[in-house]
Specification:
The chain has 77 residues and is mainly α. It contains two helices and no strands. It has a domain of 40 residues.
């Protein structure tokens, strides 16, 4: 494993601003509000699972056809 030392290295003004913005963004992502929403979602899922309710269907088919399409019907034959 290679060890790298940045002693004496300095960040430019734009790099410091970018680093500070990154740290602020990370702090807001890790807030208790987000953790609370995740906990509520898991609680709701556990409740539905205990009740035996099927999960909500987010993707479903509107139309399903079987067989071979007949092009002649399009032209009135």
């Amino acid at each position: 494993m290679k060890t790298v030392s940045f002693q004496g290295g300095q960040l430019s003004r734009s790099q410091r601003e970018r680093l500070e913005q990154y740290r602020r963004t990370q702090a807001t992502v890790n807030t208790s509000v987000l953790q609370q929403q995740v906990a509520e979602t898991f609680a709701a899922l556990d409740q539905r699972k205990d009740q035996g309710t099927k999960p909500e269907r987010q993707w479903f088919l509107e139309f399903e056809a079987k067989g071979t399409p007949c092009v002649a019907e399009l032209f009135g034959f």
